[in-house]
User: Fold propionyl-CoA carboxylase from Mesorhizobium vachelliae.
Amino acid sequence: MFKKILIANRGEIACRVIKTARKMGIATVAVYSDADRDAMHVEMADEAVHIGPPPAAQSYLLPEKVIAACKETGAEAVHPGYGFLSERASFCEALEKQGIVFIGPKPKAIKAMGDKIESKKFASQAKVSTVPGWLGVIEDADHAERIAGEIGYPVMIKASAGGGGKGMRIAWSKAEVRDGFERARSEAKSSFGDDRVFIEKFVVDPRHIEIQVLADAHGTALYLGERECSIQRRNQKVVEEAPSPFLDAKTRKAMGEQAVALAKAVDYQSAGTVEFIVDKDKNFYFLEMNTRLQVEHPVTELVTGIDLVEQMIRVAAGEKLGIKQSDVKLNGWAVESRLYAEDPFRNFLPSIGRLTRYRPPEEGTFGDIVVRNDTGVAEGSEISMFYDPMVAKLCTWAPNRLAAIDAMSEALDRFVVDGIEHNIPFLSALMQHPRWREGRLSTGFIAEEYPDGFSPVAPDGEEKAVFAAVATAIELLRRDRLDRLSGRLAPHSGHLKRDWVAKIGADYLPVEIVDGMISIPMEVDLSIDGGKPLTVASDWRSGDAIWQGTVGGNSIAAQIRPALNGLRIAWKGMSVAARAMLPRTAELERLMPEKLPPDTSKMLLCPMPGLVVSIAVAEGQEVKAGETLAVVEAMKMENVLRAERDLTIVKLNAKPGDSLAVDAVIMEFA
Assistant:
């Protein structure tokens, strides 16, 4: 077994590998860029080596820097994680020449399966079911148009060397092929240094289901069940689960055996994933094989009990797999939510900044529930514009699917993140969505259910009562705390008032204190809007980010943030401005005029912090609705900003190469 390994990656996956290596008694070496000097993976590793400036192309993507770090520290093997150099055969070969072991498959398998075009040719020859498409070189946009017309719309344009949703576009018409081809090729070039793309038929209402395979160098290959990865946005996975609620045992076995046959055909040796798209009739088609560890591997580990990172290390060290296919049992259900640094209320645009508060839910086993959080950040860490926006992977396991989903919902409610915008509100709302809970999924789920983007879920009557109860309980403690301050001329509130009003959003709800004492822990009976009394109990203290307690006997974990003249309370994907006040205060507040936001209708604002890739217009130019105004790159994705109406460009305030903050004015128009 290895004595020391180097992790050629960063963030949560580097931390994940370090944890298993530590468990196995293997010393670890981290590499880091200037932006990651104080990162968690650097702190966790036994040694760390600086390899360059923040851009990945000048640090994490340079094989020679990684090899030099191995020689400097005496690392015998390299675990590449995912992304970066994980699927680059030339890197694997360079390591072999230096006598350093690559913890992953051999170059032959990487070359055969790592390239999407070549892998589809190989799979077709191996009698694996594939999607109709054009696998040859596409010369230009005109060529792309002809191919798409022959295949039939809709089509998927994909980068050959791509991954993680980069360099991928769906075209529903001839007009969309040209723009999709150029954008996919540009993203592929900037992200992977390879601008080749291919085109294939897009299966309508598909599910994305993948099979985890594991193989050693002694002829053993097996599959560890499947993962359902259909909840995606812009082809980037958001929520995954294992097993799939759609597959039956027969289809699972057929997919698994086909995945193993493909792995054996390329002499695969390590953990890998064979991805399929599955139509409504359970017909499945080979999509690609990822010759590396997948982001979503924890859900497979939770339902099988197999540590995939440990198995990868053991296989790389030449050991035989200690399990056979009959040993693989799927136990219970696991769900993974990817926490991204993006603003769900602004069409999921990237967000960067420092984590002023980062308090994940407690990990461990709690009765029949398991909570796991794979992360690479801590409070005070900075989310940089240079890397992927994923902050953490929150996972829950339970004996059945709905229990795992409910556990995820509660864990998300307890996940505190401040300093950046993040997608926890969306993930929390998703856990309550009827279609998700019923398992009626497709890769178009988010686009179909949120066609106009995500907005806070509006609470109904019972939910408003919960918000009102929490807001009132917090206000009662605040008043009591003020009364206890020494040196006051007079009590702030005197004796406990019986009647209150809770403002939830724009609604004013009368609240009556029926019984109870104001103390910590608190237990008080409240009647909300004339309803029957609800017992509110909690040991919440001023300053706690999470209000934990019960309302009417139901367990509640709500996030609390101070806001102007009140609070912002978030719970189960709902977020409301809340304030509890005396009736006279509420009466006067209703008379206050509403402040209107400034008019920005004649400006193009930068929707996220990013780099201006191109400006497509000039001052004085007339532009039609839908035409491109500018392209802004953020976190490795190019975002096309289009005109929402016919307009004339009056002034350009930015140029290509400029780094802009969110809401910076790119141009003005009439």
The longest strand covers residues 221-233. The mean pLDDT is 93.
